[in-house]
Amino acid sequence: MDALRPRLAAEYEVESTWIPTDAIVDLRRLDGVWLVPGAPYRDDRAVIAALTAVRAADIPFLGTCGGMQYAVMEFMQTELGAAATHAESDGEGDDNAVVPLACSLYGEIRQISPLPGSRFASWCPEPFDGVHYCNYAPSEESVAQLQAAGVQVSATAPDAGAEVLEFPTHPFYVTSMFQPHIGTLSGAPTHGLIRAFMDAIVRN
To answer: From CA 110, how far away is CA 128, in angstroms rounded?
Structure first.
């Protein structure tokens, strides 16, 4: 991720910094938060608390891979009153919101299909290959509960189910299972999802 900073600084004139998940930070001083892959994190409770604060303060948020998983857990715990645990860090159980994938997608590429009419489709209108490094994902039951609460599934992929989730009543709170920075780091144009996140930060 460090290699992405110079490009974002050049394209958007933004300054980015790495913040450990167990650090004490006043989120109000940040213009945007990107929860990157790396779950389980150093302090799961701190991550959940930070996500609650980000949603409450309307801070632009992008969560990728593990960031998506924890955003799902936080929303279900805070808004739906569910236990919403993670099978990897909490052990497998009936209250898991995040479960092991039937087939690992670690190092796998799947075609991502944006859903017409979604905001994500306006940023990424055509299907594309998305790179994954994940063994866990939100369960089908969790996604159904999220949809009933107004969360939008904005893209899907074979074997992966919900690839992009857009959360309601927030200017920009978007998560993806695929990792949009990977192609960007190899020299490809900045991914449309990252561009949309940067635009939200600049507008914030």
So the answer is: 8
Per-residue pLDDT tens for 115-165? 999 999 999 999 999 999 999 999 999 999 999 999 999 999 988 889 999
177-204 tens-digit pLDDT: 999 998 766 667 889 999 999 999 988 7
Q: What's the distance, CA 179 to chain centroid?
A: 9
CA distance 119 to 165: 10
**Site of tokens 């489709």:** 121
Alpha-carbon gap, residue 27 to 188, rounded angstroms: 31
CA–CA dist 201, 32 (Å, integer): 6
Residues 128-156: b if buried by 16+ CB within 10 A, e if exposed:
bebbbbbebbbbeebbebbeeeebbbbbb
Residue range 93-109, pLDDT digits in tens = 999 999 999 989 999 99
Q: In sequence order, what DSSP letters do the residues of 17-80 get, joined into one string?
A: ----TTS---GGG-S-EEE-S-PSPS-HHHHHHHHHHHHHTT--EEEETHHHHHHHHHHHHHHS
